């Protein structure tokens, strides 16, 4: 669990911070970055004798690699540096680092050497960092392919080469790191899409800079500190009326399970009463697993709650559309998911009503639903998930959760968050319905939208992570298994509101 929130900057923000501090920074930032990388490498090489291999590229990322190499050589460790570029074309700082390396007696090889008999103690990728501008091909692609095939730990400096630091897209081919040492601040591309698969464990080295002090961040990592102030231990003198009424609307024929899953999640997150409105006339009158749920016909349920979550298994027929229209005209706080989003994407009139709605609302699309809402392809959504989430939040003037690896929370004012809990066990049917129910249940209890969305998304992933520790998944993890884990985690959080975690600045 992360209990401190880190600011996250796209490349443009990192550049702004660098330019502000570079002229006066002593020691220079590259010296700090190279030393910090060396410190981390030492940790990874405990009990691993033998030389380390550092592959240096044509820019300042390569410069970090030269500084790192120098530190190891001065410490008496054997280092092999591969560098295929013209040193005279290195940028100023990297050229200084190259010269310091060769002045200290270091050499470079223009091609990757064969591994020594006992293998490399560590393979370091200092080819490209935040300056990657186009897909990698030719010699560097061959290098990355060879490096990825080597056994043992693999460390990337700043960003795995080939990974777009802004979007998490692989441009051509990307280094598959087991560890990434990143500088100044986290970057969005490390935390979403293909970023987590390529970064491995991420270690942040701030280089003694206060990024948020230099440039107030728009984006933050979701952590418990963001929302714990809104979750309180229960007083003794309480009753169900203190914890709100959540309404789930959905469950067309063949899809009742989706609405029930959402209802169960709303109960387990603490809603006082949960009503499930089903469209299917022949749907169950009672949920045998969770008989606490009050099941009724969808059109009768809408009036019951202060928070309405509409969409799970809703379908897209005229009855579904009419229910959505009624929900949009209600004064309840709304969660829109699944077919509610598909209806908005296909009916401009409903979309207009959603845009004009004044009461708080959150949309929780997966990439396919987001694509329908914006009238573009799923690939275009995934090409820049942050940009897509922010565009949706602006368009609908509401909070948006763009689900997927590294779910983004976007606000209409351009602020955003990214969540790091969760695991691939969640790539299964019904997980989105559970999130919808969690949000409905938290909003019914009176949490404001910022707190409810951050808490719901974080809790959703943390519950799946708890199941993983019990050997449940990732393969075969079921959405119905999540609500009980949600209850366990939430009660732990409330009992211990400030669990120990990494150090670092608190979110303001
Ligand atoms: N600035 C600072 O103060 C600090 C920076 N730091 C470090 O610097 C890194 C950023 O350095 P950077 O800006 O030099 O970019 P970097 O990632 O080395 O790549 C640029 C080079 O790659 C080339 N190139 C790009 N794409 C390519 C491709 N597909 N295939 C082939 N070539 C390609 C590009 O060539 P060009 O596009 O100009 O032709 C250029 O030569 C940052 O991640 C951190 O590690 C730290 O020391 C802290 C202080
Ligand atoms: K790199």
Automatic annotation (TrEMBL):
GO terms for biological process: metabolite repair; nicotinamide nucleotide metabolic process. K(+) binds at residues 61, 125, 161. This is Bifunctional NAD(P)H-hydrate repair enzyme. Homotetramer. GO terms for molecular function: ADP-dependent NAD(P)H-hydrate dehydratase activity; ATP binding; metal ion binding; NAD(P)HX epimerase activity. Catalyzes the dehydration of the S-form of NAD(P)HX at the expense of ADP, which is converted to AMP. Together with NAD(P)HX epimerase, which catalyzes the epimerization of the S- and R-forms, the enzyme allows the repair of both epimers of NAD(P)HX, a damaged form of NAD(P)H that is a result of enzymatic or heat-dependent hydration. It comes from Nitrogeniibacter mangrovi. The gene is nnrD. PANTHER family: ATP-DEPENDENT (S)-NAD(P)H-HYDRATE DEHYDRATASE (PTHR12592:SF0), ATP-DEPENDENT (S)-NAD(P)H-HYDRATE DEHYDRATASE FAMILY MEMBER (PTHR12592). It comes from the Bacteria. Binds 1 potassium ion per subunit. Its cofactor is Mg(2+); K(+).
């Amino acid at each position: 669990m992360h209990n401190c929130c880190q600011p996250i900057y796209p490349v443009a923000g990192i550049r702004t911070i660098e330019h502000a501090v570079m002229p006066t920074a002593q020691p220079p930032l590259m010296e700090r970055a190279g030393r910090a990388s060396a410190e981390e490498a030492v940790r990874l090489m405990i009990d691993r004798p033998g030389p380390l291999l550092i592959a240096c590229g044509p820019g300042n990322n390569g410069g970090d690699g030269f500084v790192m190499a120098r530190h190891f050589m001065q410490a008496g460790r054997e280092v092999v540096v591969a560098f295929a570029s013209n040193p005279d074309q290195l940028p100023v700082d990297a050229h200084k680092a190259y010269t310091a390396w060769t002045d200290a007696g270091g050499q470079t090889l223009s091609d990757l050497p064969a591994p020594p008999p006992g293998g490399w103690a560590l393979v370091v990728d200092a080819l490209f960092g935040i300056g990657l501008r186009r897909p990698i091909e030719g010699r560097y692609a061959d290098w990355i392919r060879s490096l990825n095939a080597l056994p043992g730990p693999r460390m990337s400096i700043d960003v795995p080469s080939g990974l777009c630091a802004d979007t998490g897209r692989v441009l051509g081919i990307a280094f598959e790191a087991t560890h990434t040492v990143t500088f100044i601040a986290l970057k969005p591309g490390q935390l979403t899409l293909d970023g987590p698969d390529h970064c491995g464990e991420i270690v942040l080295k701030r280089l003694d800079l206060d990024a948020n002090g230099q440039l107030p961040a728009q984006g933050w990592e979701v952590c418990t500190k963001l929302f714990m102030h809104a979750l309180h231990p229960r007083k003794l003198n309480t009753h169900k009326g203190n914890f709100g009424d959540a309404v789930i609307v959905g469950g067309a024929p063949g899809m009742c399970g989706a609405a029930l899953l959402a209802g169960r999640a709303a109960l387990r997150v603490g809603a006082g009463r949960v009503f499930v409105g089903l469209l299917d006339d022949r749907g169950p009158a009672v949920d045998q697993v969770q008989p606490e749920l009050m099941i009724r016909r969808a059109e009768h349920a809408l009036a019951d709650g202060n928070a309405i979550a509409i969409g799970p298994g809703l379908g897209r027929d005229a009855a579904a559309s009419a229910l959505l229209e009624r929900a949009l005209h209600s004064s309840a706080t709304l969660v829109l998911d699944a077919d509610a989003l598909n209806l908005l994407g296909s009916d401009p009139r409903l979309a207009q009503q959603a845009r004009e709605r004044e009461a708080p609302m959150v949309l929780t699309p997966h990439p396919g639903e987001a694509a329908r809402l914006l009238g573009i392809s799923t690939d275009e959504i995934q090409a820049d998930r942050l940009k897509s989430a922010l565009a949706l939040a602006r368009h609908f003037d509401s909070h948006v959760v763009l689900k997927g690896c590294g779910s983004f929370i976007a606000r209409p004012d351009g602020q955003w968050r990214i969540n790091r809990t969760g695991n691939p066990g969640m790539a299964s049917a019904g997980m989105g319905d559970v999130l919808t129910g969690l949000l409905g249940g938290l909003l019914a209890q009176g949490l404001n939208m910022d707190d409810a969305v951050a808490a719901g998304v974080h809790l959703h992933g943390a519950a799946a992570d708890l199941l993983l520790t019990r050997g449940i998944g990732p393969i075969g993890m079921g959405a119905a298994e999540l609500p009980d884990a949600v209850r366990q985690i939430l009660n732990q959080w409330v009992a211990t509101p400030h669990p120990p975690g990494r150090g670092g600045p608190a979110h303001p």
